[in-house]
């Protein structure tokens, strides 16, 4: 037992809890490990929007159906996930874009950067139809208080639509 935490053992099941009894790490008798307070979120787009050329920070909402935010690290006002601790984080996003006539880039951006070499990104050419689902995912190392957003770059389209069917998710790996 260390200061500020308690280990409970019961029939080959272990639970590390804080002084308030909140579970922080559990190991069941089968060896499955869960961390109920581990930062994880999924935010959804909740409305369509008509957008223009250049860089656009996409909007999301973690209060709509099927969305969640364990740890309260996603901010609906800024559309940012802010790292509560330093570590490696997995992020994923998908944005449906309609009326595309040129190439697009999608970024999972660290601290507002649009540099494709220091962020997660993908490039999409002119779609065979009128729409495309832009997707990217991967791992970023974040310091505590670094933030992550989703940015879409339209090279020249001045009137394209984000259909409100996208999502942005992430979790702390360790």
Description of the structure:
The chain has 174 residues and is mainly β. The chain has no helices and 17 strands. It has strands at 5-10, 13-18, 23-27, 33-34, 40-44, 49-51, 54-57, 68-70, 74-75, 80-82, 87-98, 104-110, 120-124, 131-142, 147-154, 160-162, 167-172. Strands 5, 6, 8, 11, 14, 16 and 17 form a 7-stranded antiparallel sheet that branches. Strands 7, 9, 10, 12, 13 and 15 form a 6-stranded antiparallel sheet that branches. The chain has a 4-stranded antiparallel sheet with strand order 1-2-3-4, with no helix packed on it. The radius of gyration is 19 Å and the shape is elongated. The two termini are 23 Å apart. The mean pLDDT is 90.
Short summary:
This protein has strands at residues 5-10, 13-18, 23-27, 33-34, 40-44, 49-51, 54-57, 68-70, 74-75, 80-82, 87-98, 104-110, 120-124, 131-142, 147-154, 160-162, 167-172. By secondary structure, the protein is mainly β.
What is the tally of helical segments?
0
What is the count of β-strands?
17
Q: Which percent band covers the strand fraction?
A: over 45%
- Could you say which overall geometry the principal axes of the C-alpha atoms support? elongated
Question: What would you report as the Rg, rounded to the nearest angstrom?
Answer: 19 Å
Q: In percent, how helical is the residue content?
A: under 10%
* Distance between the amino and carboxyl termini: 23 Å
| Unreliable stretches covering 5 or more consecutive residues | none
Structural class: mainly beta
Mean pLDDT: 90
SSE series: EEEEEEEEEEEEEEEEE
Instruction: Let me know the largest β-sheet.
Output: 7 strands, antiparallel
């Amino acid at each position: 037992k260390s200061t500020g935490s308690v280990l409970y053992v019961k029939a080959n099941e272990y639970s590390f809890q804080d002084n308030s009894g909140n579970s922080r790490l559990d190991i069941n008798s089968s060896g499955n490990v869960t961390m109920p307070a581990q930062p994880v979120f999924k935010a959804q787009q909740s409305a369509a929007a008509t957008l223009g050329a250049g860089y656009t920070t996409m909007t999301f909402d973690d209060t709509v159906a099927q969305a969640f935010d364990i740890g309260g690290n996603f901010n609906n006002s800024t559309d940012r996930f802010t790292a509560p601790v330093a570590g490696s984080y997995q992020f994923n996003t998908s944005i449906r874009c309609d009326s595309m006539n040129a190439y697009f880039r999608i970024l999972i951006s660290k601290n507002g950067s649009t540099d494709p070499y220091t962020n997660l990104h993908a490039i999409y050419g002119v779609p065979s139809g009128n729409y495309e689902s832009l997707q990217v995912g991967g791992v970023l190392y974040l310091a505590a208080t670094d933030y992550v957003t989703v940015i879409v770059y339209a090279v020249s389209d001045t009137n394209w639509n984000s259909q409100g069917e996208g999502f942005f998710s992430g979790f702390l790996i360790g």
